[in-house]
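Build the 3D complex.
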Amino acid sequence: MAGVVRRFLPLFDRVLVQKAEVITKTSSGILIPERSQAKVLTGKVLAVGEGLRTESGSLIPPAVGVGDEVMLPEFGGTKVTLEEKDYFLFRDSDILAKMKPE
Amino acid sequence: MAGVVRRFLPLFDRVLVQKAEVITKTSSGILIPERSQAKVLTGKVLAVGEGLRTESGSLIPPAVGVGDEVMLPEFGGTKVTLEEKDYFLFRDSDILAKMKPE
Amino acid sequence: MAGVVRRFLPLFDRVLVQKAEVITKTSSGILIPERSQAKVLTGKVLAVGEGLRTESGSLIPPAVGVGDEVMLPEFGGTKVTLEEKDYFLFRDSDILAKMKPE
Amino acid sequence: MAGVVRRFLPLFDRVLVQKAEVITKTSSGILIPERSQAKVLTGKVLAVGEGLRTESGSLIPPAVGVGDEVMLPEFGGTKVTLEEKDYFLFRDSDILAKMKPE
Amino acid sequence: MAGVVRRFLPLFDRVLVQKAEVITKTSSGILIPERSQAKVLTGKVLAVGEGLRTESGSLIPPAVGVGDEVMLPEFGGTKVTLEEKDYFLFRDSDILAKMKPE
Amino acid sequence: MAGVVRRFLPLFDRVLVQKAEVITKTSSGILIPERSQAKVLTGKVLAVGEGLRTESGSLIPPAVGVGDEVMLPEFGGTKVTLEEKDYFLFRDSDILAKMKPE
Amino acid sequence: MAGVVRRFLPLFDRVLVQKAEVITKTSSGILIPERSQAKVLTGKVLAVGEGLRTESGSLIPPAVGVGDEVMLPEFGGTKVTLEEKDYFLFRDSDILAKMKPE
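Done.
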């Protein structure tokens, strides 16, 4: 992981995600047919914020952690370019699911 | 249930559902006429999230559990393709009803 | 009441209602002229959910119970077909009124 | 008051109102010129709900009671036909004012 | 103040206001040029509601009282005709300012 | 400060502001080029309300005080004409910044 | 830092930011290709407000501090011209991320 990514700290409930390459079959078995206009994508969490701050001032920690394999919505997220590579910022609550380790 | 589905953990109040096939009569007696543009569909819950997090940080557990037979709204839900099969993610609160066991 | 309807459990603040037939005069005296495009309809409650869950996690029990004769809004509600008959799901708060027993 | 109206129980913060006839001068002195497209109407409260339920589950009792003479907004309200007469359901908070007894 | 106005009790945070005549200079020195399409108007408070009810059921008393000289927004307010005179109902929070006594 | 302005009491979180003249350089060094369609304007606070009332009934005092030099948004605010001069009412939360004294 | 900027105190959760010049590579390694219509920009925090006030009247301190290198959204923010230089005001919650010191 490059220096800039390591130093990158998303704010609040934002999560920095590296999208998985569009391949025929991922290591975890998720199959994305090339022909489909894939509606859902997977990715890996690289950095997470401290969480959303509530009205009472407390923090709700994010539901995903660094290293988690996550399922992303088709739309949404903000593209961030760090050292010539594209990453995406999602809000914690927009991430659909995570994969439990095998 | 395939490995990927077993590892699939919906976030928050999301529920992974496998829609029932469009048949003339289900085992529980729900009849869906072939001619109709069926307004409501049924399905089976495969995985549920931990629940929605409130402002105070506590979790509201989902109202359905794995294995429940549920009644789904006509619209809504996010299609997820896992190992070449289609599943759907619904928010807990969008599920209309569940069937009590006989 | 058929088996499927008996097993049908609405979620949250949803209420399963069987609409009254469009007749000239109901047993309770509510008159619906045939010529009118009846703006309000009546029905009978067949099943109710546990109630709406508040932010604090507690349940607000529904304001109507099984067997109640209710007054429904002209629009809204979700049609549900169970064993070839049409029923309607309404949210508790969309039901206009109920009739006190005589 | 007819039997159906007496049995009619509005839900939550709804109020059943019988609109005043369009007359030149009401007994309380409110004058509604015939030529005007009367922007505000008066009526009499026939039945009130238990009140609106708050997030904490408690009830806020309605601000008007049976028998109150009220001032209604020009728009809004749901027409309800009971035994061939027209009544209106208003939410408590949509009623503009009530008249103190003389 | 006429009998109907005296009996008039606005509900919640509503305030009954009598608009000032469009004059060249008011007694308090507020100048409204005749040629202008006066953007702000002044008036006098004739009656106030008990205040807005909060979620917890308590009342927030209105910020103006009977007799207060107030500054009104150009738009908004509901015209009420009582004994052939026009008055206006404003919500407490829509009133811009009040004039301190000299 | 004229009599009417001195008697003027904004309600809630409203703030009465006198906009600065469009000059080339203000005394505090803020430069507004004549040619620009100045996006932000400065002004001086003449009167402030008691503050916004919260759901619990308490008051949040405004973040600016009488005499403060403030930075205003390009749009928004309500023009008020007092003794032939134009002033503006802004909500406390719409004011962008204030200048610390030198 | 000029005098006006030093005296500039953003209100509530607003943050005064000086955008980074569009260069090929920043000192921290963030690369913004000249050809791209850069979707995300970086900047430096010059001043921060006291924080957002909650319903209970307490302050939530901003998540960034003076001197922080931040990542900004493509749209949003209010341009402020101080002593002929352009700065931007962002709400705390609109800032995407900050860079941890190396």
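Chain G has one domain: 6-98.
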